[in-house]
Design brief:
The chain is 40% helix and 25% strand. It is an alpha+beta fold. The strands form seven sheets. A seven-stranded mixed beta sheet has the order 3-9-10-16-13-12-11. Helix 2 crosses helix 13, helix 5 packs across helix 8 and helix 7 runs antiparallel to helix 8. It comes from Lepagella muris.
Length: 514
């Protein structure tokens, strides 16, 4: 675990050094859990958003997009349940003075039992080789059975406490399992209490006439209150979806792990409206559709898993997370929820407006049920960054740091490198870059030796380097270097656009989803 934490620290440092992520307000000693995206980070982030947006709106004839306002009428958040129920169960350690989410502490304890089981299985697999019967081993090995029993007992207590919102029992679980504060190492815990996560502000020209409003904690409600506007103006027929990318804000008390948990973050959400009674069928369909979207990036299928919710939100009748293996364990990057008709029914009740859909096939009106897919842009960014980072050992004892980004997501698609800064090579390099820049994010890099420039481009994940040398002036060919293999090939300048388009176009990813 310590080694993985060191790797994560190295990745965070790399993100700053190479212009991906900066601490917000750094020259004023920073603002906790708020980050800025640098010149390479914003390109990577925009490419992730484009991949999601086009997968949703271009590959589905019945999904359209909107962009709703961050500020909304405060009654919306009363209707949605956020004013009364948007809370985290928090617990403090009296010695370290640090605050933690009680549910996360218990989930991490459950994960320890899972890790013990997997270690036993891994050792047996190595010992028995191809003859290993994993299913039989899990059913008969005493150590596996013992850990599985302990894990299931804890899991059951945790599930009951969460669903009953039993804060005293959550604390008792932490005490009974002797869960310690990772900083102080003590079990000197306070009571568990709820904390509302919404930011408040005021809207109005005078103090007396100001209205108390909230910074939205999710983008979904902007979709729900615009549901009828989109349905009518777009002549949409059930089933159909509305997608949105936008900022959300949560006053996270336990904000940690770099950009994984922030107070200002960005979401990519899609609400899919279906007939009542068909929601679980669509829930299963979207679970698989969204997992396929993730796996198409080629980051490693084994790094993904589903995690069904122990406690369903007040609006849901089914919920699961897609978790990704970060350096600090499997963590949620996307949630798929069957939200029933809760949100639309609540807004119908609180607004006094009829929010129903007339189904011409059934010849009846009803409030649609909703399947939600919700992915954090920043968490997706972090999963891509962590999985693509490699400190690679090379022949001869040398090494390089390389980011193996999927080419369509890479911040810079190609770099044009004149071999020397004379003899007309820089001018030829800029001529090539000017030709390519209409279709690809392309740099010209002239400073330092060609080897150092290759390393610099590897460190920001540039998939292709184009080297202009004296032969280029003679026959109009360049050396095309591949980031991952470091192999080089000689190609004609006139063929560069076609070669690059096949490799770095977003279409190459989108076609995998069909």
């Amino acid at each position: 675990m310590a080694k993985q934490e060191d790797v994560f620290k190295t990745i965070v440092a790399h993100a700053k050094e190479y212009g991906f992520v900066f601490q917000s307000s750094e020259i004023y000693d920073g603002l906790s859990a708020v980050y800025d995206y640098g010149q390479n980070g914003v390109e990577l982030k925009n490419n992730i958003k484009r991949y999601w947006w086009e997968a949703m709106t271009m590959l589905h004839d019945n999904i359209v997009g909107i962009d709703s306002a961050i500020f909304m009428h405060p009654t919306i958040w009363k209707a949605s349940g956020h004013v009364d129920a948007f809370n985290d169960p928090l617990i403090d350690n009296k010695d370290s003075k640090k605050r933690y989410r009680a549910d996360v502490l218990i989930e991490e304890e459950i994960a320890k039992f899972d890790d013990k089981i997997e270690k036993e299985v891994a050792k047996a697999r190595k010992r028995f080789g191809e003859s290993f019967d994993e299913a039989m081993f899990r059913q008969t090995n005493p150590r596996v059975l013992e850990n599985q029993k302990k894990r299931d007992e804890l899991h059951e207590r945790f599930s009951v406490a969460m669903n009953a919102n039993d804060l005293a029992n959550l604390r008792q679980i932490i005490l009974d399992y002797e869960i310690v504060d990772p900083i102080s190492g003590t079990r000197n815990w306070t009571d568990v209490r709820q904390f509302n996560l919404m930011f408040k502000t005021e809207m109005g020209s005078t103090a007396d006439g100001a209205m108390e409003v909230y910074l939205r904690p999710e983008t979904a409600q902007g979709i729900f209150v615009n549901y009828l506007n989109v349905q009518k103006t777009g002549r949409m027929r059930i089933p159909f979806g509305i997608a949105q990318i936008g900022k959300a804000f949560r006053n996270e008390i336990v904000a940690r792990q770099f950009i994984f948990r922030m107070r200002e973050f960005e979401q990519m959400e899609m609400q899919f409206f279906v007939r009542p009674g068909e929601e679980l069928k669509w829930f299963d369909k979207w679970r698989q559709t969204r997992l396929r979207w993730h796996k198409a990036l080629g980051l490693g299928d084994e790094k993904y898993r589903f995690h069904d919710h122990e406690k369903l939100a007040h609006y849901a009748n089914a919920a699961t997370d897609i978790e990704f293996q970060m350096p600090f364990g499997f963590k949620e990057v996307e949630g798929i929820h069957s939200r029933t008709n809760f949100d639309l029914s609540q807004h119908e009740k609180f607004s006094g407006k009829k929010i129903q859909y007339f189904d011409p096939e059934l010849n009846e009106s009803y409030v649609p049920y909703v399947i939600e897919t919700s992915i954090g842009v920043d968490r997706m960014f972090l999963s891509v960054l962590c999985s693509c980072y490699e400190d690679q050992q090379l022949e001869g004892g040398d090494h390089r740091v390389v980011l193996h980004f999927p080419a369509p997501l890479a911040p810079v698609k190609c770099a044009v490198l004149p071999l020397v800064k004379k003899d007309g090579l820089p001018e030829k390099a800029r001529e090539i870059q000017h030709k390519l820049r209409f279709d690809f994010t392309c740099q010209v890099d002239e400073k330092d030796s060609i080897g150092k420039r290759y390393r610099r481009q590897d460190a920001i994940g540039t998939p292709y380097c184009i080297t202009v040398d004296h032969q280029t002036l003679e026959d109009n060919t360049v050396t095309l270097r591949h980031r991952d293999s470091t192999e080089q090939e000689r190609v004609n300048v006139d063929d560069l656009e076609k070669i690059l388009a096949e490799k770095v176009s977003l279409n190459s990813l989108l076609r995998k989803l069909l």
